[in-house]
Amino acid sequence: MDSLYFLIPIAILFVGAAVKLFFWAVNNGQYDDLDTEGRRILFDDDEPREDRCRADLSDNADDDGEGER
Questions:
Q1: To 5 degrees, how large is the angle CA 56–CA 61–CA 67?
Q2: Cα–Cα separations (whole angstroms), residue 66 to 10, 23, 60
Q3: How far is CA 11 from the centre of its chain?
Q4: Dihedral-angle region of residue 20 (phi above 0 means left; psi in -120 to 50 means alpha; beta otherwise)
Q5: Residue 53, Cβ density class (10 Å: 0-12 exposed, 13-18 middle, ≥19 buried)
Q6: Contacts of 31 (CB under 8 A, 6+ apart)
Q7: Alpha-carbon torsion 7, 8, 13, 17, what sign?
Q8: Which pLDDT tens digit goes with each residue over 47-67?
């Protein structure tokens, strides 16, 4: 029974901190756009690795053989 006098105030402090953190996040716009981040992973912004290798090879083929000075 004595432990309840210790645990109940700690639980109230945790709940109060969680509520304050939630309202801070809402006020700072953390929940403004929920759809973009979920869809962004579906779109590939990077070029495929094979294309990058081909681009590197074509850049080297255009080189006239003279090294940088």
A1: 95
A2: 73, 63, 11
A3: 31
A4: alpha
A5: exposed
A6: 25
A7: positive
A8: 666 655 666 666 665 555 555
Q: Which amino acid is at 59?
A: D
d(CA 52, CA 59): 10
Do 25 and 31 contact (CB within 8 A), yes or no? yes
Distant-in-sequence, close-in-space partners of 25: CB < 8 Å, separation ≥ 6? 31
Residue 44's pLDDT is what?
Answer: 72
Q: The pTM is what?
A: 0.50
In this predicted model, what pLDDT tens digit does every residue of 13-36 receive, in sequence order? 999 999 999 999 999 988 888 888
Look up residue 7 and give its two tokens. 């645990």
